[in-house]
Amino acid sequence: AASAASSAASAASAASSDGGRGGSGDSASSRHVRSSRRSISATPAAASAVRSAAHGRRSLHTRPAPRRAQSRALHGERASAAAVAAYVEDLRGSGVKVLAGGDGPNEAREIARRSRDFFWYSPLLKPQLTGRVADALVLATSEADVVASLAAAVRHRVFVTTRGAGTGNYGQAVPLRGGVVLDMSGLDKIESIDAEAGTIRCGAGVKLCDLEDHARQHGWELRQHPSTRRTASVGGFVAGGSTGHGALLHGGLSEDGAVLGLRVVTAEDQTPRVLELSGRDVFPVVHAYGTNGVITSVELPLARAQAWSDVTAAFPSLDAAAAFALDVANAPAVVKRGISVFQAPIAHKYLEADALMHATGADAPQWDSAHGRDGAMAAGGDARHVAMVQCSPPGVGPVERLCAEHGGLTTRVVKATEAPRPMYEFGWNHTTLHALRADKSVTYLQCVLEPSSALGLLRRVSGEFDPSELLQHLEVVNFGGRAGFASLALLWPKGETGEAANQRLREILSWHEANGIPVFDPHTHVLEDGGMKVTDWAQLGFKRRVDPHGLLNPGKMRAWEEQSATADTSDPRGAFAASYRIADTSAVGGGPNVATSATAADASSTAADSFGTHASSPDSGRRRPRSRLWGEWSTADFAEADLSQAVR
After folding, report:
1. Please, are residues 472 and 425 in contact by the beta-carbon 8 Å criterion?
2. This prediction's pTM
3. HSE (side-chain half, CA atoms, 13 Å) at 14
């Protein structure tokens, strides 16, 4: 493994000097991320904790690579035509269905279609990723097909980009270096459900809507899902998503226990293996874009099914709507699944509020009533700030009373099963989609307003940006047991030219980070630069072990391209969880919120260890027992350990 990693490092170095392609947008975006990561600050009470937790991410970028080398390192050379042709012939001989670009125009169009996702939401990603197309498409229908596909990829050194349903927004499923797109939608079997314990296991290609329907037949439902529930796959959500509808109650995928188990196929030499991961061992693969193995099966915990009701309310100010949302989120007697807030005029202008959100006919709201304080709401839909709550029926009364206390007007209560559109298709990134359909110039932001100061941060943003440039869209999320906001604000960056507008977009992102609002950048295809995941030495070691040639979704993991971890410390819950706890600065008090190697070793000192001892990090001579949790391993751990115990 160490030899393979060394070879990969040499290959990455060669790629950075001899090939690849990338426009100025790539480099500018990278420069923005490096700059903004260094400028992270937080509210005074938590600033030191955030700086300490974010230190590992910043350290990678203190000496950025030259502009051209950086772009080439992220894109590199395409897979050779000869290698792809040999791969296709090899795999077809194994009975796996493969479409090749040379098969004909219909096949070429299908390959191009499945080489895209929703990256065009971003004006920075659109020019970078448009036109990047795979050379072949594998239509897997079983885990055996995936194993055969990766075995052939290793033999012929062909890149493999895994695809679920293609509903990601950051280019997760775009093949930067050609090669093969491995479509997982054929692994669509629900394998088992434990109706007593409330768990479900299924193939990675199962659509989340089908999973929800099946769970409800047994009295359960998904704990969370993206706004694309009708089309998204469970494997794609786990590998490329982070949170969604239901995170108000259960938190995001970063939470320990949000994903119970995974089956993952490696891209090792000789024969790829199938790893059965559970507990915290899933974290190297969660939200890793398929760079650390291909997920074939997922086990999730479920929640008891509820007969949800959707409550819509209108308010004369954004402050009132946001305060109402937090009060509902913190009301212990109200069981709720989601809360969304839309600054005026988002709901009226882009979400068909009058037709789909509010009651009509005899039940239509009386906008000129006393609730229209100062005539604000009576003036028209453009003046109405809207909040939507999905709660259990007993919670409707308390929600209506809280609405009135905040000067709002409840405008509709409807059973979720009878609503003209599911609530989740108004929120999360569906809001951006609706806006883009009406106005192609809009883009968006993803950031966190931490629980302890969410309303203050919201006012700070409103005081800095005119509504002509930024309109708030808020989703309430559970961060470590406390309610805060995920902001998916709509943006119209000002600028006379496209490049000027893009520069203004970067300035907006930088301003948020400089003012204690962590940004999860949706305008980069690089895993770590998005802010949702850091790659510590354990994660990089896992990558070196399971994909020694760097064939899986190349160009997406900065740590692999540069052969350097983006965090110097290990988090026992996994690096993905660490980034979420950076966002939740209110929960970390005055100390660091990422465990050091020493604390990780102490925590695991009583665990059974069958692997002996070794150095705790690449740069340390200190000896400690190897943890039983992969999320705590160093590069040396993965280089030395025998993973046969994890193979089924």
Report:
1. no
2. 0.79
3. 7
